[in-house]
Design a protein that fits this description.
Layout (H helix, E strand, L loop, with lengths): L8 H12 L4 H8 L3 H8 L7 H11 L3 H7 L33 H10 L7
Helix pairs in contact: 1-5, 2-3
């Protein structure tokens, strides 16, 4: 993802920990069925987020692959080699996250400003 200015795999890992109620990378690795070293490599951008990793994360969280990819800053329409990264990250790919604290920082400000007020019965 060298040509993607939005790529932040550590955001994906942090959000997965938050969603799953985990305290550290070792617990996340155990929950996703990967080695702790893989989490460390992803967090420090020395390893890639594989398709298998995303599938495991999807199965554990119920979030779509598109949302999981969006959490790490991959906003391409497809994963084909010819797919280009957009200049501005589209927020629609994060629509499944229904709590502002789970959104990346850039999305929080624009979402909370437009969030509809809920009526309490």
């Amino acid at each position: 993802m060298k040509n993607n200015p939005h790529y932040t795999p550590e955001n994906l890992l942090n959000m997965l920990q938050q969603l799953l109620g985990l305290r550290n990378d070792a617990q996340l690795a155990d929950r996703l069925g990967v080695e702790p070293s893989q989490i460390c490599k992803i967090r420090h951008r020395k390893g890639v987020v594989s398709g298998a990793f995303l599938i495991n994360a999807h199965e554990e969280t119920g979030l779509s692959i598109a949302v999981l990819r969006g959490l790490m800053g991959d906003y391409r329409e497809s994963t084909a080699a010819s797919a280009k990264h957009p200049d501005e990250p589209p927020l629609h790919c994060l629509h499944q996250l229904n709590h502002p604290s789970m959104l990346p920082a850039f999305a929080r400000a624009s979402t909370t400003a437009r969030a509809p007020q809920q009526r309490h019965a």
